[in-house]
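Translate sequence into structure tokens.
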Amino acid sequence: MDCESLRSYLVDYQHGRLGPELRRDMDAHLEGCEACAHERAADAALAEALDRRLAHRRAPASLTARVERLLAVERAAPRPRAWRRALIPALAPALAAW
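Result follows.
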């Protein structure tokens, strides 16, 4: 693993969202690369400071209800089936020739 690759996965690494193989690769790189280890430590310190300083607030009940209503409408709306979306462009030349 190189430094650029490690940096692209750093947030997921810190939140435990990586698979075991990728995590092992990152651990190995961090042990041998002082610059990346320093960046990981700095990112972790920043995340911890933000977590301590920023208030954790729940969304207002009215906002939560509005979002839930919008999601329910979105889920209930009919959606074109994937095969229809693929079929229309495929049939266009045949229909044009007809």
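Note: The two ends are 57 Å apart (CA to CA).
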